[in-house]
């Protein structure tokens, strides 16, 4: 299992993903689930993945290979005219990988399935965020659904819903997502550190600040301990139960 979040605000996009992958309780390893592409001044693209690791890595590798030699292969991810067309390409590539891997054909509930979050901006367009399903189709974030989660999302969702504001700074978004991830990590052993963070600032058309948090990171430890203490204080401040 995994946990990834893409968050859309006025200032830009914030992406966060854990790095734990496991094939049983005694076979746990660290794998990045965040891939970025950029052509400074023209486009920035970030892709987060969840699901079968072979499927998601195969999809990313195919997109990467075709972007390196576009004249010899299928349409490349860095040649798409819009983020919509980029999402369509990722969906088609994911469907292609699943179909070629599964003997029974492409199926959303197959053991070979995968899901992606795609966000970024291409010159002439606005920042956009998509969730791409194993079937190859996708939905886009907007005013009513300004963030997407994939993987083990239920533990970290309430804090985002209660706190999100479209006018938030990217720094506040990072703090919010770290609280969301800390809640998930404490609740589910299949999600774990390190955590990858990527900023994208609206109209910058280049990669923004990037950071990896592990268990030794002083800021992450401050957030984790501070949130726990704040919850205890908030609980104690609530009116006593009356019988």
Description:
The protein is an alpha+beta fold. It has one domain: Aminohydrolase, N-terminal nucleophile (Ntn) domain (Glutamine Phosphoribosylpyrophosphate, subunit 1, domain 1), CATH 3.60.20. It is 33% helix and 28% strand. The strands form 3 sheets. Strands 10-1-2-11-12 form a 5-stranded antiparallel β-sheet, with helices on one face. Helix 3 packs antiparallel against helix 4 and helix 4 packs across helix 5. The protein is globular and about 70 Å long. About 2% of the residues have low confidence.
Question: How would you summarize what this structure contains?
Answer:
The protein is an alpha+beta fold and 243 residues long.
Topology at a glance:
Blueprint: E1 3-9, E2 12-18, E3 20-22, E4 28-30, E5 34-39, E6 43-51, H1 53-68, H2 83-101, E7 114-122, E8 128-132, E9 138-140, E10 147-151, H3 157-163, H4 170-187, E11 195-201, E12 210-213, H5 218-237
Antiparallel strand pairs: 1-2, 1-10, 2-11, 3-4, 5-6, 6-7, 7-8, 8-9, 11-12
Helix pairs in contact: 1-2, 3-4, 4-5
